[in-house]
Amino acid sequence: MELAGSTPTTADAPRKDIFILSGQSNMAGRGGVLLHSHPRKWDGVVPPECAPSPNILRLSAHLRWEVSNEPLHRDIDSRKVCGVGPGMAFANAVHNSGSCGGSIGLVPCAVGGTAIREWARGEHLYQNMVRRAKEAVKHGSGEIRALLWYQGESDTYTQDEVDAYRMKMESLIGNVREDLALPSLPIIQVAITSGDKYLEKIREIQLGIEAENLRCVDAKGLELKEDNLHLTTEAQVKLGRMLAECYLTHFAPKQQPRAS
Asked: Which part of the chain is the Sialate O-acetylesterase domain (predicted)?
């Protein structure tokens, strides 16, 4: 297993089912971040569904594989305080299903407060996501199974943002598939549950986008923190399970029956 501080080799590294986690703060994770503490801090509570496992790895900001633990985005969304997101609950659910052949590799890329225009091809966030995804599959260490995407709250403020959102999201889907040379890359998008004046219009766009191997998981109804913007820890666990169910239902490789 290639972990931080060791040299990865193809021979001794278990193949990974790799998942890109991207978008803004509710993907990066704010579950358990104390809103009224100064300075702001995470409460450190890790639900059992988000417990670390030697079979679940994360690609660090320094592009090294390490055992994954909360907060997943601590060195990616580094200007904010990160807490629990959906990634670990997702990874544990997928791994426990027995659908993956080896270990799971998570590639955190989400950054809080970012609008869809900041994820356009050529912009830093997009280029960093593609760079990290390509690094994740070096040495033949695994296969990218899906991109999990939760973003849109920052595009609910103006009609201009709404008018541009569909085209920009469709461009993102096409660009990331082209740049990773994965034309059928599964993408699971989350329909947002919080935002500003045009929340419902952005949700309508997200729920209405149609593309091959694109699915949408609806976060509406999940519990929000006092700020009415970020999901609670419990809601993040539920979302992680919802994402896992979507992946397992629509995209997970079919397991071959074992010979008796």
From this structure: 16-248
6 is catalytic: no
In this model, does residue 8 exceed pLDDT 90? no
Has 73 been annotated as catalytic? no
Residue 224 burial (CB < 10 Å; 0-12/13-18/19+)?
A: middle
List all residues 6 or more positions away from 38 whose beta carbon is below 8 Å from its beta carbon.
none
Report which DSSP code applies to 123.
S
- The full set of domain ranges for the chain reads 15-251
Alpha-carbon gap, residue 214 to 243, rounded angstroms = 12
Residue 253's pLDDT is: 85
Query: Shortest CA distance to 152 belongs to which of 214, 202, 109, 220?
Result: 202
**Could you say which of 22, 25, 103, 154 is catalytic?**
25
Of 6, 43, 227, 250, the catalytic one is 227
CATH number of 15-251: 3.40.50.1110
Q: Report pLDDT digits (tens) over 19-48.
A: 999 999 999 999 999 999 899 999 999 999
The string of pLDDT tens digits covering residues 42-88 is 999 999 999 999 999 999 999 999 999 999 999 999 999 999 999 99
Cα–Cα distance, 180 to 96 (Å, whole number): 28
Q: Are the C-beta atoms of residues 248 and 145 closer than 8 Å to each other? A: no
Asked if 219 and 192 count as a contact pair (C-beta separation under 8 A), the reply is yes
